[in-house]
């Protein structure tokens, strides 16, 4: 299978923490290792068990992160739960130079910044949604890495992200209710150029 578009567009993957974005992207990269390249973000948070520097994130200090931000080195950056996250110009450039489709995993703050300041990138915006807020909370609890404060912050952020998704800011929505089904929808969009995804669930109930 090859990428359908003649001009390779970056792909922006967005969605609340705990929706399974990393799992979906891992499957995509495993199946198409020569097609996609991941834009590795910078962060000031500490590595979680098993995370390798330069693979999961570029782990850095707050001072170094802010220095790079002041130098215009980020396409987007934001702060969440006291930690800074950002997609650097260099990381995206490294992927595009390799001839691969660049994939960015960012939050809605980052999406807004790209739309406002880097529209020339013309990325494909894909929102990964949970089937319900209760399922999202179950997934976060299952991680075993979230404190009560962190859990509350992530759920509050999720509600904000879902509200933003309702605005039509994304080209395609993928609901991760079943991993294989959701993966096939995602694959159809980014590999085959399909423009139809899922309908965003009603989270107001």
Number of domains: 1
Structural class: alpha/beta
Coarse shape: globular
CATH topology, which one? Answer: Rossmann fold
Rg estimate, integer Å: 16 Å
Unreliable spans are 1-7
Mean pLDDT metric:
87
CATH architecture tag: 3-Layer(aba) Sandwich
For this structure, what is the CATH homologous superfamily?
P-loop containing nucleotide triphosphate hydrolases
Terminus-to-terminus distance = 40 Å
Helix content: 40-55%
Strand order of the largest sheet: 2-7-1-8-9
Pfam families: Guanylate_kin
EC number: 2.7.4.8
Protein name: Guanylate kinase
Domain Guanylate kinase-like: 8-191
Give a written overview of the molecule.
The chain has 205 residues and is of the alpha/beta class. It has one domain: 3-Layer(aba) Sandwich (Rossmann fold), CATH 3.40.50.300. Helix content is 40%, strand content 19%. It has helices spanning 21-31, 62-70, 89-97, 108-117, 133-143, 148-165, 179-192; strands at 11-14, 36-38, 42-43, 58-59, 74-80, 83-88, 101-105, 124-129, 172-175. The strands form two sheets. The chain has a five-stranded parallel beta sheet. A hairpin with a 2-residue loop joins β5 and β6. The longest helix has 18 residues, at 148-165. It is globular and about 40 Å long. The relative contact order is 0.20. Mean pLDDT is 87; it is low at 1-7. One of its GO terms (cellular component) is cytosol. Keywords: ATP-binding, Kinase, Nucleotide-binding, Transferase. Its EC number is 2.7.4.8.
């Amino acid at each position: 299978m090859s990428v359908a578009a003649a001009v390779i567009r970056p792909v922006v993957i967005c969605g609340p923490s705990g929706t399974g974005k990393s799992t979906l992207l891992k499957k995509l990269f495993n199946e198409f290792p020569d097609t996609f390249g991941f834009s590795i973000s910078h962060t000031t948070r500490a590595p979680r068990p098993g995370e390798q520097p330069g693979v999961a994130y570029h782990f850095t200090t707050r001072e170094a992160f802010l220095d790079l931000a002041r130098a215009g080195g980020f396409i987007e950056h934001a702060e969440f739960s006291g930690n800074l996250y950002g997609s650097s110009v260099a990381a995206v450039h490294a992927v595009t130079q390799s001839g691969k489709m660049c994939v960015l995993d960012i939050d809605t703050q980052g999406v807004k910044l790209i739309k406002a300041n880097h529209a020339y990138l013309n990325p494909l915006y894909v929102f990964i949604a949970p089937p319900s807020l209760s399922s999202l909370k179950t997934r976060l609890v299952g991680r075993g890495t979230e404190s009560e404060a962190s859990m509350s912050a992530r759920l509050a952020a999720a509600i904000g992200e879902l509200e933003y998704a309702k605005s039509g800011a994304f080209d395609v929505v993928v609901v991760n209710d079943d991993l294989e089904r959701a993966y096939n929808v995602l694959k159809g969009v980014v590999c085959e150029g399909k423009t139809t995804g899922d309908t965003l669930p009603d989270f107001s109930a």
